[in-house]
């Protein structure tokens, strides 16, 4: 998968094709993060083929739709459990991000994993994404934003000079001439 642009959250539902042996096969639902619906369907088949005896030629997609955030104007903390393949092996990881949407947090995660661990998008598997309370956050990079607004340092207010400093002080008794030996 190429994680170009911002990722979107899709709900993909699929099943095996009905056969005389199994006329009503069970449905499988997955939450997929992808740049578009075509990639979302492709990732669905990739994951389902690993978990069940299903593949695209013997199955069908029943539903593929984008999931929208319920409150996209509120900043939330997200915990992301993921698994990725590095040069040395497969690793499990837990990461935390602050964002307005789940898809935004996952996009941040893909960018961060590429930057810090050189992990390509196709080697990252998102296991679970959960909105977490401020009290449950573990990472200092996320916890630093949980302080109240009054405690935040404002560099603009701190760097303004006082009015007394703006008045030039000229002393008449001081000699301004420079002497060279």
UniProtKB/TrEMBL annotation:
<feature type="domain" description="Large ribosomal subunit protein eL20">
    <location>
        <begin position="7"/>
        <end position="130"/>
    </location>
</feature>
<keyword id="KW-0689">Ribosomal protein</keyword>
<dbReference type="GO" id="GO:0022625">
    <property type="term" value="C:cytosolic large ribosomal subunit"/>
</dbReference>
<dbReference type="GO" id="GO:0003735">
    <property type="term" value="F:structural constituent of ribosome"/>
</dbReference>
<dbReference type="InterPro" id="IPR021138">
    <property type="entry name" value="Ribosomal_eL20_eukaryotes"/>
</dbReference>
<dbReference type="InterPro" id="IPR028877">
    <property type="entry name" value="Ribosomal_eL20"/>
</dbReference>
<dbReference type="InterPro" id="IPR023573">
    <property type="entry name" value="Ribosomal_eL20_dom"/>
</dbReference>
<protein>
    <recommendedName>
        <fullName>Large ribosomal subunit protein eL20</fullName>
    </recommendedName>
</protein>
<dbReference type="GO" id="GO:0002181">
    <property type="term" value="P:cytoplasmic translation"/>
</dbReference>
<dbReference type="Pfam" id="PF01775">
    <property type="entry name" value="Ribosomal_L18A"/>
</dbReference>
<comment type="similarity">
    <text>Belongs to the eukaryotic ribosomal protein eL20 family.</text>
</comment>
<keyword id="KW-0687">Ribonucleoprotein</keyword>
């Amino acid at each position: 998968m190429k994680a170009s642009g911002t990722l979107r959250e899709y709900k993909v539902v699929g099943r095996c094709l009905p056969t005389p042996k199994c006329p009503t096969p069970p449905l499988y639902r997955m939450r997929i993060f992808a740049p578009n619906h075509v990639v979302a369907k492709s990732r669905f088949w990739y994951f389902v083929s690993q978990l069940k005896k299903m593949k695209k030629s013997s199955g069908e997609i029943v539903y593929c739709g984008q999931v929208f955030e319920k409150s996209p104007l509120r900043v939330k903390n997200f915990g992301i459990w993921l698994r990725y393949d590095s040069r040395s092996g497969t690793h499990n990881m837990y990461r935390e991000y602050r964002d307005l949407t789940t898809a935004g947090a996952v996009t941040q995660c893909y960018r961060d994993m590429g930057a810090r661990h050189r992990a390509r998008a196709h080697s990252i598997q998102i296991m679970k994404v959960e909105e977490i309370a401020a009290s449950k956050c573990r990472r200092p990079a996320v916890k630093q934003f949980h302080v109240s607004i009054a405690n935040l340092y404002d560099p603009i207010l701190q760097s303004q000079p006082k009015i007394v400093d703006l008045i030039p002080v000229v002393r008449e008794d001081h000699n301004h001439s420079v002497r060279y030996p």
